[in-house]
Specification:
single chain; 2 helices; Alpha-Beta Plaits; 65 residues
Length: 65
């Protein structure tokens, strides 16, 4: 499991964009969002750098939480 901190993620639209970006890398990824902490825990076999790159293409910087 990988937990990513996404400081710009603040609303349901942001959450949907983040989910879509991560699922574009791994459609079977299981996501657990914490909107207060602005993090997402991702259960996936995808490489973290690939998920971070996908998030960057939709305007979100992500770091390890």
């Amino acid at each position: 499991m990988t937990t990513l901190s996404i400081p710009e993620m603040s609303c349901s639209h942001c959450k949907a964009s983040v989910e879509k970006a991560i699922k574009s890398v791994d459609p079977t990824a299981v996501l657990d969002f914490d909107m207060v902490a602005r993090t997402v825990a991702v259960q996936s076999d995808a490489i973290t750098d690939a998920m971070r790159a996908a998030l960057k293409t939709v305007g979100y910087e992500a770091t390890a939480a």
